[in-house]
Amino acid sequence: MSWLKRKLVLVPTDFSEQSYEAIAVAKEYVDDLASVKLVHVLSPLHPADPAAIWDTLSDSDRMAKVTEFLTKKLSEIGYDGVEVVTLMGDPGTQIADYAQESAADLIVMPSHGHKGITRLLMGSVAERVVRLATCPVLILK
Amino acid sequence: MVRTLLKFKHYLYLLAIAVIFIPQVAFAQAEAEPTGFLGALEGGVQSIVDVLNLIFYFRIGGENGFPFIVLWLVVGAVFFTFRLKFINLRAFKHAIDVVRGKYDSEEDEGDVSHFQALSAALSGTVGIGNIAGVAIAIRLGGPGAAFWMTMAGFLGMSSKFAECTLAQKYRVIKPDGTVGGGPMYYLSRGLSGMGMARFGQGLAYMFAIFCAIGSLGIGNMFQSNQAFAAVSNVVPSLAGLSWLFGLIIAAVVGLVIIGGIQRIGAVAGILVPFMAVIYALACFWVILVKLPAVPAAIGTIISTAFSPEALAGGLVGVVVIGFQRAVFSNEAGLGSAAIAHSAARTDEPVREGIVALLEPFIDTIFICNLTAIVIVLTGVYADPAATELNGAQLSAASFETVISWFPYVIAVAGVLFAVSTMISWSYYGQQSWAFLFGDSTVNVYKGIFLTCAFVGAVVNLGPILEFSDIMALAMSLPNLLGCFLMSGLIASDLSDYMGRLRSGAMLPEATRQPEAVLK
Q1: What are the pLDDT digits (tens) for B105-135?
Q2: d(Cα B309, Cα B505) in Å, to the nearest integer?
Q3: Which residues contact B453 (CB under 8 A, 6 or more apart)?
Q4: Averaged pLDDT, A43-50
């Protein structure tokens, strides 16, 4: 059945347990863990963050730290071989853009419901990804 | 393509808000009684303010008694001063040593040095309040209010120490190396460690709500309002163009906080200390020119502190005015600056707390007092012909009697102070917003913040400012309550730290005195 398998599946993470659990689901769609990429999108630092005022923590430092953190985390939970990708900007837009650029076949992510008024006002990253992505998106409940 | 359009959608919202607001505001200004949308808004806010006033300004001890929320702040500051055995005095020299970098260690976790954290926090506290707030206090409560501001600054050093120590102790280092800290974190994490997890969580949410709203007032609308007052004071032709000023100041702040144009922030970061020095020098110059009158002026400040004029509502009235304006200026007890201090690179929470106690000293005891003495020395506040002058304009008029061109400097300094304070408070507000609604929606908050920056410059603030003032003071409710509950912890950490400091074990190897070896 390997002809049904996907070549590249993205799993966006916000460091939540649910997002790590999504890797297990993504794994079912691929032959090899190397076809899964774990994606984290960083928000730019607020200009009044002391680290931004004094320029002590650059964007590339932050990305490198996140990559290191996630690579360690992946090996702890037994997913060695999954590649880590870090991006910067609005999470929904960046994930969809990256999926298009890298010609991903599928995005797997938890829905993470906000509740009540927040949900009404803001929607969620998952909603945005569904709206913007050009590939299939699997939302886990 | 779709995505680019979506991005633009946010800016379109902002534009739409501006388009709706400008005619409304112009309309509101043309008539004495604002009608339409703003009128309804003002009416609505007024009724909320009335209810909040009943709660927070409930006067303890009858009609001329102490408003509850101010008493809360005073009690907090006095409590920590005694509980921590005058930390504001005994740690002062050590604070300066730490800021000078004597104890810095690159290996500790955190983002910036002690000095850098202090100056980041100071750019939030040193605002136009240091020029305008003092004048407002003296206008309302007479020169004696300046004495009580100083007292509030002195006692506030202890509450500042307490909150910033906790902020360091319970901060979170995120995977990207940035630091999450402040009352939201120490209320939830600290109290949960004491078996009050749900209560702590509740206080943390309460703080975040008050901070997100309060930031829009003292850190935003008040700033743009008084910055416009300072500018229109020297450029009278601008008087009818407050909407233009509002748009410009909102655009500048927007370029930094949405556009991410660091350079403006960096320029403000360099110019603000520079302006502060110029401002202080001008104060010294006025003092020098009027030197023979200085003892009398100090005498006036002290004597009217205890026998104030009737207009201030007696002794309690003047104490209340002094404390309130001081807290608006130095933020001690509100917990906001603790957010910035948590980023310091150290593994000793107490050490950053000690650095933080310099903040009320610089802001209130030093800068505010300079403004106060200039206002009292020049006597403009007492001039019957100048009774309509208040805030930044009163300060400017006071300087003008000695240095004729100084109102221009006040206008420039005022705008710079205002912009840098607004940028800092948008950070505090945004951190609180992110705590409530998550990181991905902070742009919504930025939009609200910029709209308020504009509104602050144009409308006669009245109830809207009153509302955000109450929210800002209300931050002290969850914050100080948490600090009280954890005061035992702070005290034992402090005595442990002071013990190790005295033993000399803390200095880096190189500077430590070698122990005498007997041969």
Answers
A1: 888 889 999 999 998 888 888 888 888 889 9
A2: 54
A3: B220, B221, B223, B224, B246, B249, B250, B253, B422
A4: 87
CB-nearest to B112 from A15, A50, A118 is A50
Let me know if domain B31-99+108-498 sits in CATH 3.80.10.
no
What tokens does B177 get? 């190396």
Q: What is the reported pLDDT for B493?
A: 95
Q: What pLDDT, on a 0 to 100 scale, did the predictor assign at position B505?
A: 75
Query: Hey, which residues 407-466 in chain B have their CB within 8 Å of chain A?
Result: 423-424, 426-427, 430-431, 436-444
Q: How confident is the model at residue B507 (pLDDT cuts 50, 70, 90)?
A: low
pLDDT at B27: 40
Residue B453 burial (C-beta neighbours within 10 Å; 0-12, 13-18, 19+) = buried
**Dist. CA B435–CA B385, nearest whole Å:** 50
**ipTM reported for the complex, 2 dp:** 0.87
Structural tokens at position B36: 């339409």
Q: Say yes or no for a CB contact (<8 Å) between B176 and A62.
A: yes
H or E, element range at B492: helix B487-503
B172-189 mean pLDDT = 93
For A106-119, b/e burial (b = at least 16 CB within 10 A) is bbbbbeeebeeeee
Rounded Cα gap, residues A92 and A129, in angstroms: 5
DSSP codes of every residue in B199-246: HHHHHHHHHHHHHHHHHHIIIIIHHHHHHHHHHHHH-GGGTT-HHHHH
List residues of A whose CB lies inside 8 A of any B CB. 15, 42-57, 61-63, 65-66, 69-70, 90-93, 96-97, 114, 118, 121-122, 124-125, 132
Stated length of chain A: 141
Task: Look at B21 and B253; give whichever has higher pLDDT.
Answer: B253
Which pLDDT value is given to residue B24? 43
- Quickly state the pLDDT bin for B5 (edges 50, 70, 90): very low
Residue B9 forms contact with A (CB below 8 Å) = no
Distance (Å) from the alpha carbon of B409 to chain A's nearest alpha carbon: 25
Q: What sections of B379-475 are H helices per DSSP?
A: 391-400, 406-437, 442-458, 462-474
> Is the pLDDT higher at B516 or at B157?
B157
For B48, phi and psi rounded to 5 degrees?
-65, -45
Asked if the model's pLDDT at residue B384 lies above 90, the reply is no
| C-alpha closest to that of B7 among B296, B178, B259, B348 | B259
| pLDDT band with cut points at 50, 70 and 90 for residue B17 | very low
| Cross-chain CB nearest to B256 (options A15, A47, A91) | A47
Q: Which of B13, B125, B178, B422 to mutate to test the interface with A (most CBs of A within 10 A)?
A: B178
Residue B372 host element (H or E): helix B369-378
Domains of chain B, by residue range, sit at 31-99+108-498
Torsion sign over Cα B300, B305, B311, B312: positive
**Which tokens go with B433?**
């917003």
Average model confidence (pLDDT) across chain B: 85
| CA gap B202, B91 in Å, rounded | 33
Average pLDDT of B285-294?
93
Q: Is residue B20 pLDDT above 60, yes or no?
A: no
Amino acid (1-letter code) at residue B446: K
Tokens of A41: 């999108």
What are the residues whose beta carbons fall under 8 Å from the beta carbon of B208, sequence distance 6 or more? B184, B432, B433, B435, B436
Domains of chain A, first to last:
2-140 (3.40.50.620)
